[in-house]
Amino acid sequence: MKKGIFITMEGPEGAGKTTILEMLYEHYIEKGIKIVKTREPGGIRISEKIREIILNPDHTEMDGRTEALLYAAARRQHLVEKVIPALEEGAVVLSDRFIDSSLAYQGYARGIGIEEIWKINEFAIGEVMPDLTLYFDLDPEAGLARINKSNNREINRLDLEQLDFHQRVQEGYYKVIDKFPERLHKIEASQGVEDVFEQSLRAIDAILNR
Ligand SMILES: Nc1ncnc2c1ncn2[C@@H]1O[C@H](COP(=O)(O)OP(=O)(O)OP(=O)(O)O)[C@@H](O)[C@H]1O
Ligand SMILES: Cc1cn([C@H]2C[C@H](O)[C@@H](COP(=O)(O)O)O2)c(=O)[nH]c1=O
Fold this sequence. Notes:
Layout: E1 5-10, H1 17-30, E2 35-39, H2 45-55, H3 64-88, E3 92-96, H4 99-109, H5 114-125, E4 132-137, H6 140-149, H7 163-179, E5 184-188, H8 193-208
Parallel strand pairs: 1-3, 1-4, 2-3, 4-5
Bound molecules: adenosine-5'-triphosphate (ATP) and the ligand Cc1cn([C@H]2C[C@H](O)[C@@H](COP(=O)(O)O)O2)c(=O)[nH]c1=O.
C-alpha cells in the first residue's frame, strides 16, 4: 500500500528539471526527510539499457510506436523495481520525467495521439500516478540554447529533432495541463534558478504539509 509521496518534474529540453531536482533533493536530505531521486527513462539497470536504445542518435530508423512502447516498458520496470517499493516505505520520490513526457512527446509531438499513449501507459503503470507534477515552462529555442551551451550534457536522438517538434512538445504539455489541471503546477522556467527553486519548494511543501 502506498504511504509516500510521488512527485514528478516535466518540461521541454533544457527547462532546468535536473538542476532543480538536485537542489530539492539536497534541501530535503538536510531536513532529514526520506527522499529518493530518480529519472526516466532509466533509474534502474534495465531501464537505463532501454534509455540507451531509445536515445542513441544512430537509431534514426526507430518507429514512433516502437519508441512509445520502449518508454512504457522502461517505465513499468522502473515503477516495479524502484518507485513503488520506495513509496511503500513512505519515501518522497522525485522523478525527472514520467508519463506526461510520453503524452507530450509521443502522444502530441509525434502525432500518435494523447489518448492512444494514455492507453498503453495505463497498462504499464496501473493505478500509480504522481501526487504532484512540477511543469517547467520554457520556449524551446531557449531550452535548446541552454543544452547546446552546457558542457556536461550529451546531445541525444530526441534533442536532434527539428525546432517544430520541440514547439509541439510544449503545446503537448499545455494539452496535458488541460487534462490534469489539479496535478500539474506550472512554473515559469525562464526565471533565475533561485526563483524557480523557491516556487518548486512552495508547491512541494504545500503537499508535504497537507
Ligand atoms: N533557471 C535557469 N536559468 C539559466 N540556466 C539554467 C536554469 N536552469 C538550468 N539552467 C542551465 O540549463 C542547462 C540545462 O539544465 P537542466 O539539465 O537542469 O535541464 P533539464 O530540463 O533537465 O534538461 P533535459 O531534460 O533536456 O536534460 C544547464 O546547463 C543548467 O545549468
Ligand atoms: C520519459 C520520456 C522521455 N522522453 C524524452 C524527453 C527527452 O528528450 C529524453 C530524455 O532525456 P533527458 O535528458 O533525461 O530529459 O526522452 C520522451 O520522449 N518520452 C518519455 O516518456
